[in-house]
């Protein structure tokens, strides 16, 4: 690629890729239409806001493990391992906060049946050599005193961290502007435009990949006082829910996942999130609701990202880095690092082989 590299898409994948390119001395141009609401292009193509704006931001290679996703596990671990270096270098490039928090994660069970489910999940973590510690409910409440007194089980994962995506995006943009990166809000309709494609669901314009929007309801609450220090994930009647404390005193609640095309917050989802969160932390009833919203995550049939080269109409190659689905924030450190290396003529590493776009050609 040339000394100047154009990235289409300024979500967290595009921004981290741009940051890593500037670390390597490259001149970068970022193009993103910057849509803040769901809308359609003049030709009827749906446009989606950046998924990172509505993401929870959990850096949880252990707690985010899903059954039968073996090819994804090493990517999650490698990216979590890459985050300390990324955050240290970003903190030198900007004065803005990133919302990076290494306090750790607790997973709790609402009742005895949920505790059995949690124990099966913990055993699965152990089978994958993922370190976790079972703790008693009283030990969990010593760490988080506002947990419900009747929780039936708990697991501690000190190595699962979080960041606040909205602060992270702001810090990345500030660092990139300081480094001379140019931003454009033009709407790109040509699939062959740009050197690196990081457009999430916008990559459907390429017409080659089976990306689909997977919606997730997410709530922002204002708390009367700090309620939690750790990320608290829980099972309530086998349903997952997560509660994420933010550095400004807010609390984020999420975990729903649906593919029903409702582009506004779903009443059943909002009700479920509040009911289950209150079951785990009753003091949430004292909070104020700041925002109920929904994000659209770019899902693939196998839940793996799409990373690799595609061939343009003129025979030249374009790098595609998209489809990070539920793990966009977690995988951003790895995606940005490898994306920058490949853009600088390095080979695609073996661990990304399963993400090759060619797997969809059949």
UniProtKB/TrEMBL annotation:
This is glycine oxidase. It catalyses: glycine + O2 + H2O = glyoxylate + H2O2 + NH4(+). GO terms for biological process: thiamine biosynthetic process. InterPro entries: FAD-dep_OxRdtase, FAD/NAD-bd_sf, Gly_oxidase_ThiO. Pfam families: DAO (PF01266). The keyword Zinc does not apply. It comes from the Bacteria. The keyword Mitochondrion does not apply. Its EC number is 1.4.3.19. Pathway: Cofactor biosynthesis; thiamine diphosphate biosynthesis. GO terms for molecular function: flavin adenine dinucleotide binding; glycine oxidase activity. One of its GO terms (cellular component) is cytoplasm. PANTHER family: GLYCINE OXIDASE, SARCOSINE DEHYDROGENASE-RELATED. It comes from Rothia mucilaginosa. Keywords: Oxidoreductase, Thiamine biosynthesis. The gene is thiO. Residues 5-341 form the FAD dependent oxidoreductase domain.
